[in-house]
Amino acid sequence: MPLRSKLPHVGTTIFTVMSQMAKDHNAINLSQGFPGFDSDPKLLELVAKYTREGFNQYAPMSGVPALQDVLSAKTARCHDYEPDPETEISIVSGATEAIFCAITAVVKPGDEVLILEPAYDSYEPAILLSGGIPIHIPLKKGDFSIDWERVISSVTFKTKAIVINTPHNPSGYVWSSSDLDHLAQLIRDRNIFVISDEVYEHITFDERKHLSLIGHEELREKSFVCGSFGKTFHVTGWKVGFCIAPPELMEEFRKIHQFVTFSTVTPIQHALAEYLKTPSNYESVSEFYQKKRDFFCQGLKTTGLEFSPAQGSFFQMASYGHLSDISDKELAERMTKELKVACIPVSAFYHNGQDHKFIRFCFAKEDSELQEALGRLEGLKRIL
Ligand SMILES: Cc1ncc(COP(=O)(O)O)c(C=O)c1O
Fold first, then answer.
1. What is the pLDDT of residues 57-108, one digit of tens each?
2. What pLDDT score was predicted for residue 379?
3. 239 domain residue, yes or no
4. CA distance 287 to 290
5. Which atom of ligand 1 is the closest one to the Cα of 96?
6. Would 44 be classed as within a structural domain?
């Protein structure tokens, strides 16, 4: 009996494809967004301690209270608003789960949801599975800032939600306070919810501050703010994230979460609760990555690629359209096979595969690996 797919257009993600290609061709993998180094040994030791001490059974559905409490205090410290740990914070299995549960809680069949493209690939399938209609709005050419006029003109009486992402993957764009005010104006007097993907909240550069929607009085009333400890502490494989939302939204969010995963890995939640008590553990992350961004961008200058240094995230985009007409997919493939450096073709972040001749590198790697990759990228002149 044939199974009619609910997601007929979804295949293997580009991240899996490129990582596999990197492996097959023994290339340096600057494609997928995961760090090439380990976390702080203190955090690893805390996980070992809590597993040894017997914290190995189901955690409470909404999270380990100690972690909810410390996340509330951290939110107050960073964004001047202290969410109620019991009713406004849930710990979940990665930001991917947070985004999925938030979209599922809000979207009903026929609802339109605005997505700003290029966009992370998990938003659209979640919308489709709820019977929603994704409405794609391109970010501005050049700096990938928000084209607010286009956003406003895309709103209809069917618009139910907007998904936003700051700092942005893949462009690194960081929202300004004027972006937040535009969004507040957009949803004012309308029944539009916001799903805010803030997984790179602790990776911003050049003194830029991450402005969470939690810190905006009007926006937080209608927003699900989604975050990821995996991104902040170099432990993407742990898949531990969170969602912060007002009680009435969180109540619906939890109805979904309890039947998706029910609860999230217990000893790691206890370890994070202890580790987050020391603010320097998360406040030092931007400085750590800024050194890597600067190092990588310095080297990129000699490759012939054009780029503006990322404002945030651990990705650097670069364009090559002034050098060649080949597609970004072909370039990514040739770079992997011939130069032994894997990257992501940015067309993969567009629903219709639009090719603006951009590639994305992940610079969350050891400096020696970045140095080696930059040396190999000198060969770009040969293949372009
Ligand atoms: C923009 C963005 N959102 C969400 C995620 C997923 O986060 P997590 O691993 O916590 O599910 C990623 C991971 O690459 C991402 O880049």
1. 999 999 999 999 999 999 999 999 999 999 999 999 999 999 999 999 999 9
2. 94
3. yes
4. 5
5. 11
6. no
